[in-house]
Structure formats: structure tokens, C-alpha cells
Recover the amino acids of this structure.
């Protein structure tokens, strides 16, 4: 099955940020943010969407599909940017 070359809108890719106890530790210690993303989104899609929406540089993206059928993206920011600053802007911390 060939992937469409249609670009997804960043607001279609990033559904909402996720802030749990473990994700707040990731923000503080690992400079990572956690988002629930579209099941159709790829790692490069998530990277571009986060960089565009939050004006940061992304170092890496890991994704996980949960047993509940949601897709979580763990987004590690470059050392130039603080995940805590983005989380505060989003009203998570």
C-alpha cells in the first residue's frame, strides 16, 4: 500500500498533549514532551508538526500505540529548548 504524498495539517497530527506523573518526570529530566497523535501520523510528520506549532527544534521522536488504540509520541527537544518552557506555555505545568 503506497502512502499518499498529501501533507497532513499540524492540527490533524497533534491531537493533544499528555501530562501524567511519568510524563512530567520526562519533561524535567529528559527534556521530552508527550503527545497523543493521529494513528496515521509518521515520526517525520510528528517532528514537523511539533516544530511548526511550538517553534522548537526536535532531536528525536518515538511513537507507541497503546492497548487502548491511541498513538503516543515521545518528542525529545534539542538542548537549546526546554520542554518545561513549552509545557508551561501549554498550561501543563
Amino acid at each position: 500500500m503506497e502512502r499518499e504524498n498529501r501533507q497532513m495539517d499540524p492540527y490533524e497530527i497533534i491531537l493533544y498533549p499528555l501530562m501524567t506523573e511519568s510524563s512530567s518526570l520526562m519533561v524535567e529530566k529528559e527534556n521530552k514532551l508527550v503527545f497523543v497523535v493521529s494513528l496515521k501520523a509518521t515520526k517525520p510528520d510528528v517532528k514537523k508538526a511539533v516544530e511548526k506549532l511550538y517553534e522548537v527544534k526536535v532531536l528525536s521522536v518515538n511513537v507507541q500505540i497503546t492497548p487502548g488504540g491511541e498513538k503516543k509520541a515521545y518528542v525529545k527537544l534539542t538542548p537549546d529548548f526546554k520542554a518545561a518552557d513549552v509545557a508551561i506555555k501549554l498550561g501543563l505545568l
About this structure: Helices lie at 10-13, 21-30, 43-54, 83-89. The first strand starts at residue 14 and ends at 17. The chain has a mean pLDDT of 91.
